[in-house]
Amino acid sequence: MSKSLQAIRGMNDILPEQTPLWRYLEGTVARLLDNYGYKQIRMPIVEFTELFKRSIGEVTDIVEKEMYTFEDRNGDSLTLRPEGTAACVRAVLEHGLTGAGQPQKLWYIGPMFRHERPQKGRYRQFHQIGLEVFNIDGPDIDAELIVLTWRLWGLLGIRDAVKLELNSLGTSESRGRYKVALVEYLSAHLDKLDEDSQRRLKTNPLRVLDTKNADTQAVLVNAPKMADYLDDESRIHFEGLKARLDAAGIPFVINTKLVRGLDYYSKTVFEWVTDKLGAQGTVCAGGRYDGLVEQMGGKPTTGVGFAMGIERLILLLETLEQVPEEISRQVDVYLCAFGEAAELAALALSEKVRDQLPNLRLQVNAGAGSFKSQFKKADKSGALYALILGDDELAQQVIGFKPLRGQGEQQNIAFDALAAHLATCVVQG
Ligand code: ATP
Ligand code: MG
What we know:
The protein is α+β, with helices and mostly antiparallel strands and 429 residues long. The chain is 38% helix and 21% strand.
């Protein structure tokens, strides 16, 4: 195929054989968030470039080198959203959703775009489910975010494969003091730092902490620790969070090097990581961003949130073989009809059945075909039962009912009794 007719590198089609797993995951999350009282918000995929520069920060990987930015026909600089928080905050401000200190518990789902090097678990279009809470400033809500993700891992059967890492970045004042100490220490070891870290030391020194370079990591062993610079408020907040996680029985490890890639975090930061996916091990990441709304022109409004990467969760479900078998079966009953008269009767009958059993997954054969070919299609569809309607059945106003997976005998069912009969043998979601 010519290059122009291929998908863009790092942007994947999600094929019909994969969508059942996506829908299962998305449905599980949506139900869970409903149950915890979160409301969905949907933002545009494109925003003014300035929004991301202002909120994410100029000196971040995303803004420096990962954004899909272009000029539209008006000459405005637009960007495909690389993450959801900025647009969510923009929407909240634009529509006054947090006016007068009103709390909001919001979530969103959708594609994000970053020009990164595509590899397993890392794509240029990827999908996130994100959650943002505004105007609730205590550790109770930080804990709730973590508790509900823990419940999600339980529902998905991946709890044993993920680990919670936790840190506190303090308030911007305490982080400022820590930064000074860190820069002083690292500057004394400048020659041992990798090139990237030397650059970051000047632009965004905290980011040196999450370097992957072994030499720099060795230097960091004796670096000042953020925990020693925490202000009282942040320390009490962090203790409150840890106590709640203990109360909920959620294991965690403190990772003092956890700083997160974005500029806007304060106090709590956390990541759920797995060692089952190679280098792309973070499946969910988030934290508190109490200064962001004000930085974006709003009234002081606290915020906390996270985003999880759907592709990585899907990979994890597959790797751990936690894909529920029943999700791939999308047909309950397959109806075969032979000849024009039977086809007409089948259409009328199937619509009547759908009226009575709105959740029944009933596939009616299209494209005619011999008994053998229709039956083959019925079997291949994964249906539990085939319905068979030919001239003989039609004359008696009955339909053949044949179990395809070895549960019971074939029998004829009267048209009038079909819906009731199906209701007894098909579990309807
Ligand atoms: P990483 O360190 O892996 O690059 P990040 O810190 O840039 O992640 P966030 O911006 O916090 O990621 O996004 C939240 C989650 O979204 C990540 O934990 C990950 O699961 C997912 N994610 C981020 N970037 C990608 C990508 N390019 N492809 C697939 N998933 C991604
Ligand atoms: Mg990244």
